[in-house]
Specification:
Number of helices of chain A: 12
CATH class of chain A: Alpha Beta
Oligomer: homodimer
Structural class of chain A: alpha/beta
Radius of gyration of chain A: 18 Å
Strand order of the largest sheet of chain A: 6-5-1-9-10-11-12-13-14
CATH superfamily of chain A: Ribokinase
Shape of chain A: globular
Largest interface: A-B, 26 and 26 residues
Mean pLDDT of chain A: 96
Low-confidence stretches of chain A: none
CATH architecture of chain A: 3-Layer(aba) Sandwich
Chain lengths: 333, 333
């Protein structure tokens, strides 16, 4: 493979998370689906924000979280996502650049505002996400630069961003450029409801051999294949992608590569506070391991270590020195 | 005392904290005074933000933090402070209202923006604060409503807000109204540099019998009296106020009332992460105890419990159920 400037380039939603503790009663009274992600409009975002408790704001976005993990682990990364010209946009841009990630997409304008995700965390550390996409859904396909895509060894795409039309076109263009340049394409399925809306697209990307690495959790892989049986859903999916990674929460994760199966148990988390970003950081650990040319078993272990760190505090960006944690974890193994 | 609507009404800066971990080297390279608070202008705020690491945003402001503690402990509170019509202003207003505090000051306009404090936290949990006051310094004296001031048993004033001219006039008017209505005035000295700029004002407020409860830490009480000897600085100050509270970090705190001295050790903190807001939450515990008519020793204990909670995580607003912690702590004593 020719020399690349970046290990991973991600296209994802540019979101600031607004994180608040809540009760199961509140989740029920607002008729939310616990553990899910739903898209909300500006009016609903205002009403829900008014009803929810005091919050903390921490940059988020699934793909951006994964990159933050990757950059902290030492990989060279770039991000493509759309912010607005407002304070939350400044926060998002600051945090991603301060993590060492290249981010050059200019703000779109004052309106619609930068995306935010109202995240309600219950005592069991489960997160219920309510996303107002704002500017993020207007990521234009014209922003996808062929040379930039070719400059990254792995293109990482966020399933969440398949919903809005413009970013979907941007991602299709990016896949084309990546494949033409001989780069790998990694894709995360993101959410069962997203899969319900775009199952045919996702399966056809896989059938066409456009996905090299597929990330999913148990619910998502079953939803993708519309198969309640986990094992057969995994087998069917693994047949279509060179590398499949499926996270299983407290049961760890598995990988399937060339019909060979690998598994890793979940790492012990110091505290269980907020599961937001567990999958994103698992992907970060795996992609970091792959970028470093490590064996799949090590990649899984790195994912498990990063996921355990992220669920030990509020927010989906690493707080602890995950690079040191990974080095320690791999040397102990 | 006639019936009051609020236990405590505070006038303070309306600030969103931007909190980032850093190193002693960074503090040195930016020529900051570790542990201090300095006021910075918009250009400096931008340059420092660009240089610092990824951050989390959590509503702050010394007086507002104290009220958040008080409201969480069950007291009825109201806040007066100035935000702008922007996203950080919405965040501040949301968080304070969601904590159950009445806050009715309308946003000023788009510019200057809502105040922010860039807080750099080193590994020793020390915080170095860089405050861009923005809209907060334009709190107008005209906002001080006589009836509102009379409706609170205690008026709580933040020394930090003595710097800008308009809020200083607002606080002077508020003191006058509070005294005329027979209410108590509590004042926190906030910072040694603030005291350097306004020592004569603060001493004259005390000489004129306008301060009923004075909060300070060791450095501040010594600075106020320009006396390196802690004991004599305490004695001189206590002679001028009915109740003096001095926090001493890991050595706990003392109170002096009618020449009687009380002391409390520091409470054990689960983890020591970020000392931002330790004094603010100590004041919350004390004022809550006073509002509930508890003896001074209990008030100090409540302050120590609240301070221990706030230093165990990032941000100066309570995360744990401090009401339950206080009840447990007082019943164990």
């Amino acid at each position: 493979m020719p020399q690349t400037r970046y290990d991973v380039l991600a296209i994802g939603n540019a979101i600031v998370d607004v994180i608040s503790e809540t009760t199961d009663d509140f989740i029920a009274s607002e008729a939310l689906t616990k553990g899910g992600m739903q898209l909300i409009d500006a009016a609903r975002a205002r009403a829900l924000y008014d009803a929810m408790g005091p919050a903390r704001e921490i940059s988020g976005g699934s793909g951006a979280n994964t990159l933050a993990g990757l950059a902290t682990l030492g990989q060279k990364c770039a991000f493509i996502g759309q912010i607005a010209d407002d304070q939350l946009g400044e926060v998002f841009a600051h945090d991603i650049r301060a993590t060492g990630i290249d981010f050059d997409v200019p703000p779109l304008g004052k309106e619609p505002p930068t995306a935010r995700c109202l995240i309600l965390v219950t005592l069991d550390a489960q997160r219920t996400m309510n996303t107002f996409l704002g500017a993020s859904q207007y990521l234009a396909a014209g922003l996808i630069d062929k040379d930039l895509i070719a400059s990254a060894a792995i293109l990482y795409l966020e399933g969440y961003l398949w919903d809005p039309e413009e970013p979907r076109a941007a991602m299709r263009a990016a896949i084309e450029h990546a494949k033409a340049a001989g780069r790998k394409v990694a894709f995360t399925l993101s959410d069962a409801f997203v899969i319900d809306r775009h199952r045919a697209d996702f399966l056809s990307l896989m059938d066409d051999g456009l996905i090299d690495i597929l990330f999913a959790n148990e619910v998502e892989i079953c939803s993708l294949q519309q198969d309640e049986d986990f094992e057969s859903a995994v087998t069917a999916s693994a047949a279509k992608v060179p590398l499949l990674i499926v996270t299983r929460g407290e049961h760890g994760a598995i990988a399937v590569q060339n019909e060979q199966r690998f598994a890793v148990p979940a790492e012990h988390a110091e505290r269980l506070i907020d599961t937001t970003g567990a999958g994103d950081l698992f992907a970060a650990g795996v992609l970091s391991g792959l970028s470093q040319g490590r064996p799949i078993a090590d990649c899984l272990k790195m994912g498990a270590i990063c996921a355990a760190e992220i669920i030990s505090h509020y927010g989906a960006r690493p707080e602890a020195d995950i690079k040191a944690l990974v080095e320690k974890g791999l040397s102990a193994a």
